[in-house]
Amino acid sequence: MILAMTIAQVIGVIPFTRLGNRFNSVTYFQLLTLTRSVALLCIVLASWYKLPFTVLVILASLAGLVNGAAQGYLRVILNHVVNANRLPRGLGMAATLNEMVFVLAPVAASGLGSISPVFSLLVITALGILPAILIPRLNIRSSPSVVKTQQRALTRPVALVLICSTAAEATVAAVEIGAVALALSFRYEPFYAIFFTVPLCLASVMGGVWVSIRNRMSAPGTVLLHLCLMMLGALMVTVNFSVITTIVGVMCIGSVIAPLGTHFSLVLDEMSPPHLKAEVFALLRTSNAMGVIFASALLTVTSLSLSLLMITIFIGIVASGMAVAVLGKKSVIETDCE
What we know:
15 helices; transmembrane helix; MFS_trans_sf; mainly alpha; 81% helix; transmembrane
């Protein structure tokens, strides 16, 4: 069901994002959120009446179709809710809360699921509609004064950032999905997968706090260092020398999740014209989903160690591409100064 929802998100991101250009962004976001909630409610009802699993997969796909577009418009709305000079702090806080939810949600779902799995799904559905209710009423549209030429959302610089985001998300997903396999590789019970997932989340929370306190966009050189640190962490997890070194590697990965995610969001905001921002932000969300799909596919068809090695190589190639871009930009600036 998760795979179906993710694939549907990739398919629906462009058409559903472009469809909203003619509407108020807040109203369209509420409509997308309501559509997703209705699909989730249908999953609850289908589970209650014990309909075939195929029906649940189809309903999950319908919920996923609008998910990327909803995230894109939510990010556009954030630009109008938060002052530009406080946007890094807001994104850092969002990243911190996201990781806290990642840690607490499974615990809450398990507790509610012990009462009733259907009740657990119903609570999730109710929580999913909250953004549509809590979002402030604003009149946000693509500016009529903007001349909509043949500009494309997916330019080369945007594509580089999206690839970086995909590689980073694939690295994180490999650790999250492969945590049980990591525990088993050290001859621990599956429960001890928390030795790797909890440090990952704690390091990510600390990274989000650091971004919030710092409250400014990272320099390109700093982003390159963050990618290198993530590559080092992935390499340490791949080598799997000991529990301690693996946990340190996991924490290296987690510590740069929020700084990288915040930078990608801010730099794409600068790169995109007003009428394409929602589409670009939706593509960013979808690139994260592609990273999860990539990591899941590798872990399905290959061993954990080989999957981690391939993802480490992937993040290394991305870091090299970023280094070339940074050095090229630096040489252009030096030439202009001369």
